[in-house]
Design a protein that fits this description.
This protein has 197 residues and is of the alpha+beta class. 39% of the residues lie in helices and 11% in strands. It has seven helices and nine strands. The protein has a three-stranded mixed β-sheet with strand order 5-4-8, with no helix packed on it. Strands 1-9 form a two-stranded antiparallel ribbon. The protein has a two-stranded antiparallel sheet with strand order 2-3. A hairpin with a 5-residue loop joins strand 4 and strand 5. The mean pLDDT is 95. It binds iron/sulfur cluster. The site of iron/sulfur cluster has 10 residues, from loops.
Length: 197
């Protein structure tokens, strides 16, 4: 694990985070269309990972059959070659995604856990998950042209629905100094997942 971080402390944080995110997803369920086998959020991204998260996902990796590990490493090698050609901001399908399922689900990163909710970015603005524009999360309340929540669409869905909300679950906040202090963690450096290999 990352220097100065005990795995037990990171597991405590993940338990806290899973519970908190679970509550948010539950509250926002009228707008959430995540389902097994969708995997859109794992098919095109940069996947920021801290040193701590990388060390943790590699524990999951080490538990996979040798053949699967080799398959993942081959994908990483190819992606790194492509990234070298295309440059920064290169987006790709996560190498841990196999048959549209995460091969290291219990060990996945923090960004993987929070994706799908509307979040608040460091500038205090709402960030809508990209799948909203592919007919998925929040697509029933977002106006595609303006990219904001439509009051009209929300009202049309009926009475007594929770408001569509953006939560403070941006990656920067979930891996902030504040979280490090509260949970005795040290996230370390952060970079795109394939850059750790
Ligand atoms: S680690 Fe797993 S959940 Fe995260 S992007 Fe990769 S396949 Fe998806």
């Amino acid at each position: 694990m990352q220097e100065n971080t005990r795995i037990a402390d990171y597991l405590l944080y993940l338990a806290y985070l899973n519970k908190k995110l679970g509550g948010f997803f539950e509250n926002q369920s009228p707008y959430i269309f995540c389902q097994k086998g969708c995997a859109k959020c794992c098919q095109n991204g940069e996947y920021p990972f801290s040193q701590l998260e990388y060390n943790f996902i590699m524990i999951g990796f080490s538990k996979l059959p040798e053949e699967t590990r080799e398959h993942i490493l081959q994908k990483v090698k190819k992606l790194k070659e492509e990234k070298a050609k295309f440059g920064d901001n290169y987006t790709y399908e996560c190498p841990f995604l196999i048959n549209k399922e995460c091969s290291v689900y219990e060990f996945r990163g923090i960004i993987c856990r929070s994706f799908g909710l509307m979040s608040i970015n460091p500038k205090g603005l709402s960030k809508i998950p990209f799948c909203a524009f592919e007919g998925l999360n929040y697509s029933n309340v977002i106006e595609p042209e303006t990219k904001i929540v439509s009051l009209e669409k929300y009202k049309k869905l009926g009475d007594n629905l929770p408001e569509p909300l953006a939560y403070n679950v941006g990656y920067e906040f979930l891996t902030s100094k504040n979280i490090e202090e509260n949970f005795k963690l040290n996230f370390g450096d952060k970079k795109a997942l394939i850059d750790w290999f």
